Amino acid sequence: MTAHPPLAPSDPTAASACLPFSTSPAGPGPSSPVAIRLRGLTRVYEVPGRQDARVTALDHVDADLPEGSFTAVVGASGSGKSTLLHCMAGLDEPTDGQVTMLGALTSGMRAAERARFRARHVGFVFQEYNLIASLSAADNVSMPSRLAGRPLSGAQIREALDAVGLAHRAGLKPHQLSGGERQRVAIARVMASRPRIVFADEPTGALDLDSAALVLDWLRRLTEQGTTVVMVTHDVEAAAKADAVAVMSQGHLVQWAGCRDARQIAELVHTARAARVA
Length: 278
Fold this sequence. Notes:
This protein is α/β, with parallel strands linked by helices. It has a single domain (22-277), classed as 3-Layer(aba) Sandwich (Rossmann fold). It has helices at residues 81-89, 111-121, 137-147, 154-163, 179-193, 209-224, 236-239, 262-277, and strands spanning 18-21, 34-46, 54-66, 70-75, 96-101, 104-105, 122-126, 197-201, 228-232, 244-249, 252-259. The strands form 2 sheets. Strands 1-11-10-4-9-8-7 form a 7-stranded mixed beta sheet, sandwiched between helices. Strands 3-2-5-6 form a 4-stranded antiparallel beta sheet. A hairpin with a 7-residue loop joins β2 (34-46) and β3. α5 (179-193) packs parallel to α6 (209-224).
């Protein structure tokens, strides 16, 4: 594996906003255990209709994500960030390398075993909400826990919906809710099931600014309860809310940084893309 040195921002004032890490970010505590460990994670796709043509979406990615951390994965389109999330979460199988979650080698599990692991320990927030159209907001919140064999009480469902300001909309179905309200139901679903890891794929992509800010606040609240959050996003404003930013470029994880400045995150993405093209 070829080591890729950190990419320093060109703006000399960036050091105060973006602090590069040598490898992976530190956890919220002095010795936070690792929630997700990646070693040599590689994903190669064959190109349909073209013999021996392949695309390397991930190229030997290494990372340690501490428990209770909030990591944003950013990069230009086609950089590999969504593939990284899918392979981490076990939704796609890596071509090579290892994924360990909560001490379990999930990349070595069979599909059914991975699905059971996700049901017990993992939550998802997607741009498309993934709500069941025929179910009420309350039933959508309760569904993952029911499938995992841990049904929620009515009080737990109401508490989760109340936390996102939707207790009064519990009986409505998704088509009766706004886009922001649907995403809030998806967040309530995660909060109610209390997963140890949450993967968020463009969670603010279809939302207005106010709704997006609320979603990011709720994701932050999850980390305060010890949940590890990994968010893939094109939105540098959203990425600036995370504890750490991982910059992807052409399948490589080229930079870790602690960054709360959206402009500097955008520059990191631009610099990474320009360096790879060069």
